[in-house]
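User: My advisor asked me to double-check a structure prediction for F-box protein At1g78280-like before group meeting. I don't want to rely on an old file, so could you generate it fresh from this sequence?
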Amino acid sequence: MDNSQAQAFEPRDRRLDALGDLRVLPDETICAILEYLTPRDIARLACVSSVMYILCNEEPLWMILCLKRPNGSLQYRGSWKKTALHLESLPNECEEPCRKPLHFDGFNSLFLYRRLYRSHTSLYGFSFDNGTVERKKDLSIEEFYHQYDGKKPVLLTGLADSWPARCTWTTDQFLLKYGDTTFRISQKSSQKILIKFKDYVSYMKLQHDEDPIYIFDDKFGEVAPGLLKDYSVPHLFQEDFFDVLDRDQRPPFRWLIVGPERSGASWHIDPALTSAWNTLLCGRKRWALYPPGRVPLGVTVHVNEEDGDVNVETPSSLQWWLDIYPLLADEDKPFECTQLPGETIFVPSGWWHCVLNLETTIAVTQNFVNSTNFEFACLDMAPGYRHKGVCRAGLLALDEGSFEDADENMCYNDDDFSCSDLTRKEKRVRVLKPGDDPSKERTTNGASKRYNLWKQGFSYDINFLSMFLDKDRDHYNSPWSSGNCMGQREMREWLSKLWVGNPGKRELIWKGACLALNADKWLECLAEICTFHNLPSPADDERLPVGTGSNPVYLIGDSVVKIFVEGGLEASMYGLGTELEFYNLVRKVNSHLKKHIPDVLASGILYLENGSYTVVPWDGKGVPDVIAKSNLIPEKCELDGYAFGLWSKQQFEYRKAATSIHESISSAGCMMIWPYIITKRCKGKIFAQLRERLSWEDTLSLASFLGEQLRQLHLLPLPPFNYLIFPDIGKDLELTYTNSCMEVVPSKSNAPAEWEIFVRTLIRKKKDVTSRLSKWGDPIPNTLIEKVDEYILDDFSKLLDINEGKNGVNKVGNPCSWIHSDIMDDNIHMESRSVPLCSGESAKDAGGVDDGSKNGYDDGRMGDSWSPSHILDFSDLSSGDPILDLIPIYLDIFRGDQSLLKQFLNSYKLPLRRMPLHESVEGGDKLGRLSYLVMCYCILHEENILGAIFGLWKELRTAKSWEEVELAVWGELNTYDGFP
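Assistant: Sure, here is a fresh prediction for F-box protein At1g78280-like from the sequence you gave:
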């Protein structure tokens, strides 16, 4: 056979012709692009060419497509492609016929081959019995604390010997008892997907996945309560500071873990720098661990510069063990061990770890915060990004200018420091790649220096790490990391409960509060205010702010001191200015409401200049000199009146509505100025502390009280509309915004002037609604986020029911009114009414649980009845549609209870306006529903109201339309006729 004949039989390279212009991309990139397409698009693309057929039939691709489906239940159909096509609800005749897949020669892919190899790798002999993690038995609490807690991992034997789970937690017994129970699976997906245990067992038997799905369920105690009886927290880990929180308040902390061979957890650090214990009941697990700050080779850490959110880019656990681990020098290898059934491994705070299941395993794990890691957890929740990066990546996370500070506190040579590549808004920490020669000085990026720095580690010391906090940021006025294990309100409540319930640990709690809350800074400010107004100095137990609000609030003797910080100085000035204008109006018109709002004792402004504090009294009128110097004088305001009053605030809110969710319009350079107010301290407790203790009669009484007081609030006259502040209102002009964008706004809505600004603000909020909802994410369904723009009208003036009045002046169905905006469970105060206990009955028997917390004078005996007395915190006052006040009351106070809503409306006795039916406009049927109006307000709200809705009505997380959500939550309003 000559050469020409031989060449004729050689397979040609299909890739060049089959991919066209895409041939310049590596296979890995093309596969990553395919993940963004829909299953139907993938099916079509598979018909384009032979190579596309191969790439589009890869099981890992179809697995990702399945896991991107909306939240719901999963049933594996023998392959991920069949599962995905089934989820598409294709008719039977469209299902792929049973036939052998096509095969093509002339195509080779090292990327696909490696993935296929990993998918069929057996780990039977993958154990390495000579692990470097110590094994201990019968360890005392004292030995654990001094040798391991916060220091190094340890394998503990014997802790689970008495557990029923040692005998009952097997695959077969789970099938018998929990076969039809649905558990959550964990995978690289934003969706929460459930699977019945019997279906998961079928999947484990059939699958050949490189990174199999595995059960990782933090709600297993709710869906299968019997499992909680099968184990107990080992005595070494009993101390848990999260125990003070109710089950629904504390962040996820315990998980049931079930996984087949090759599954596992890739490299990570546990959330909030918590510690963890993990007990294995069957199977074998392979563990690898690195000390804090020593980022595993092959892993990249991303830290968002704005909110400190941390994202870890890491290969799968199996890929790391097969591809990276063999290349490591002996001195670079991690702490490692093979965990056997019945053994418990302890992972200290801040330690990197990854886990590989060597066979089918069942385990239980819990994270906890104790005295050792409490300060680290508080540090991790503090605003900023630098300290978060250092806690995880050590000194590799620092830029060059930060090494000098670190050098003073660390015992390293100058040659050991280097600068990682930190650019733009995201700080990306890179480490030496496996196989690089650290002895060569040829790299310009300082690879050998980074290697030496990585190898030697760093000091995981709280005093050292706290150096990297951003001192210019504070907990109340900075972006909150979406990766934090709890929200800002929850974190403040957690610290408050610890402070009240653990007086013996107050010094430790105070240190944590200083890290997370800037508690020491606010205490300094409080002391200056108290001195100026001759208030008593804060007592030891008064050092910590109370409540969960967004401003530091203190209880000092008979007084309550609130320091305004939320939103920055400009927002704070409008908050206090509007509140003082409101209090003056209530007294001026002698409103009945004045009996149920706290008396104002003093107000002013505190500022720090040249290292010393100055207090300036301010009653809300005029513009203080310190504020004028900060260039915060509202445009065209009346300087002798309430310059920072209601209408100036409305202009501020209007401007703020046009800013991106990532932007802030608070003035720079004004961080050292704080408005404050001092009010008379109320007796009793806030409703948030009493919710579970109130009788149904007391709760109904609360609903009636809120209806009565909201009626008084909404009937108050508004200040005269200030046309100087809004010169374009009422003119036939398009609205132009000067921040590099122009909006299309109806040139003339025929709305009265005070409603015009309300409508225009809503229009501005709608422009950014999709990105805002996407940022909030779960539990808001992605399918609804995609439909939100078509659900909400573009012209909100159509919702106002505008009628032509006398002299051609247009009127809206309801008048524009004052709005509290924030009537939530911590802004309602209640007093006790003594009721006799039955003979021999204790307060505890009567349902009282004295948690010791106080937001006023706790003069009530346990077992007392409680009645509402005051509405607190008017700093969020606004004007507009009074229906807005119904949102926090119904969702937060009433928790969606319609009977309480009816009780409220019966006392409110003001008509909720029925929407007219606009048949002439598209979507006119929506305009006839009051529920539609309120749902629009919920979607456009600056707070995550939708998160509360989908938290209360969990069944709506699978809703197909906004109308379905609207009618389920607010449909009752459509049958309410109001009162004359």
